[in-house]
């Protein structure tokens, strides 16, 4: 990816920007979003079903963790278009967010 004045391979740069233009989040259909949701619910069930509500239940104590998870989700959405494997393959970028949501999910289960 282009950054400042650093040298990049122009062909690889064009390929990645083609991926972004055709596979980016703005071009996803409802079926793509449903596929992502299915992958998240199947493989990160506790993080999605307990971590998100747990973060908001204890927002005063753990609000910064929800903010971190949202920032990591934004990074994933920005990088998803540059992944040639498609929407499901791009979810590997969400791994750090799953760690954060595990911590907030513990707040739900600790009661």
Overall description:
By secondary structure, the protein is mainly α. It has one domain (10-109). The chain has 5 helices and no strands. It is elongated and about 55 Å long. 18% of the residues are buried.
List keywords for this structure.
111 residues, mainly alpha, 69% helix
Count of helical segments?
Answer: 5
Largest sheet: none
Uncertain segments are none
Instruction: Please count the beta strands (DSSP E, at least 2 residues each).
Output: 0
Helix and strand succession?
Answer: HHHHH
C-alpha Rg (nearest Å): 16 Å
* SSE class: mainly alpha
| DSSP helix fraction | 55-70%
Average pLDDT: 87
How many separate domains make up the residues?
1
Taking the alpha carbons of the first and last residues, their distance comes to 45 Å
Strand content: under 5%
Shape: elongated
Task: Outline the fold blueprint.
Blueprint: H1 10-23, H2 30-43, H3 45-57, H4 59-79, H5 95-109
Helix pairs in contact: 2-3, 3-4, 3-5, 4-5
Summarize the structure.
The protein is an all-alpha fold and 111 residues long. Helix content is 69%, strand content 0%. The protein is elongated.
